[in-house]
Design brief:
By secondary structure, the protein is mainly alpha-helical. The chain is built from ten helices and two strands.
């Protein structure tokens, strides 16, 4: 945990370039947002939750078209519901109407995203990040993993203390344990978030370095993923 990285100046430069953080307050705010999974995409979480609900309801695999059609149906239903006037204690208030073009744009974007996720997960299964039939339930791991990194980067930049960094890492670990079933389950979700954020389906460095890390942590006898029990 006593992280120095490239030295104070380099760590501060990195935080400013990548995160817009220039002071302790920004570091604390960003760290808290990551620990609350407030920075992971709401759209990613929406489509993953739709699929997970379907998998539970039907107790089996969910086809790509079923997933897409259900997500589209939810978007359209929400848009229709939002367009209805709502009665409040102060009287009827205006509806929140989205234009047909805006609704169609959201539908098209979500259908494309579902395709991207399905293709990544197929590659994950081929490369051993997911078991056959496995899928990612939530991408919150992307924020929790970055929170552990943010804790160390803030320490290296001298925006926080060792005690603060340790407390943040412990908190991130507890959140991971509460939301995932195993180190491998957490890792696949983290890699999906990393790829959706950076990779653009190139399966390039952002993907390859993550896969290498996953394989090392799942195979090296000294790995904490093998020496520290999940439960």
């Amino acid at each position: 945990m006593a992280y120095h990285g490239g030295g104070v100046r380099n760590e501060r430069r990195r935080l400013e370039e990548w995160w817009g953080i220039t002071a302790r307050e920004g570091w604390l705010s960003t760290l808290e947002r990551l620990l609350n999974a407030d920075m992971v995409s709401d759209v990613w979480e929406f489509v993953l939750q739709v699929r997970h609900s379907l998998a539970r309801d039907y107790a089996g695999p969910v086809s790509l078209e079923h997933w897409r059609d259900t997500a589209e149906g939810v978007i359209r239903a929400r848009a229709e519901a939002a367009a209805q006037p709502r009665l409040t204690p102060d009287g009827v208030i205006a509806s929140r109407t989205s234009s047909p073009a805006a609704v169609e744009s959201r539908v098209a974007g979500v259908r494309r995203l579902i395709g991207r996720i399905a293709r990544y997960e197929a590659r994950f299964r081929a490369d051993g990040l997911l078991p056959e039939g496995g899928y990612v339930r939530t991408a919150e791991a992307w924020d929790y993993g970055r929170a552990a990194g943010m804790a160390r980067w803030g320490l290296g930049a001298r925006y926080g203390t060792l005690e603060e960094a340790e407390a943040a890492v412990i908190r991130a670990g507890r959140l991971v344990h509460a939301n995932y079933r195993s180190w491998a389950d957490f890792s696949a979700a983290y890699v999906l978030g990393r790829c959706l954020h950076f990779d653009e389906e190139e399966f390039g460095e952002w993907y390859e370095t993550a896969v290498t890390g996953h394989r090392t942590l799942m195979s090296d006898p000294a790995s904490p993923w093998l020496t520290i029990a999940w439960h």
